[in-house]
Design goal:
about 130 residues, mainly alpha
Amino acid sequence: MRCFSKYIILPIQTLSPYDAGPSVAVGLYGGLFPVPGTTLFVTVILLYIVPKTFSTPMKGLVFAVNAMAFPLEIILLPYFIHAGSSFFDDLECDTESLIEKFYDENTQLISMIQESSACLGAGALVW
């Protein structure tokens, strides 16, 4: 516990609000990417896109906020899917029908993966 406090908590506590603000914003924005499991890669890309130099404690805060945003990402996932399906008129993504297809024994696995990935892709484009 002492090592965690010395190398993680104390450097983050030394950040000014001007350094902590962009770190939290990038971590939260990257953490809310609507494709689960890809938020780390999106956050790394955002670190290089944002025109600010991030120090090591700032990057630590970015990735901590990214990890803490996972429950919020899961909660917002149906809303991203709905927004993606409303943005693309020919795509019908209803989260309830996707869940029913998941539990239906007659549904082909490949077709279910294709349909759900199209819905997630549309949600990612709306993001």
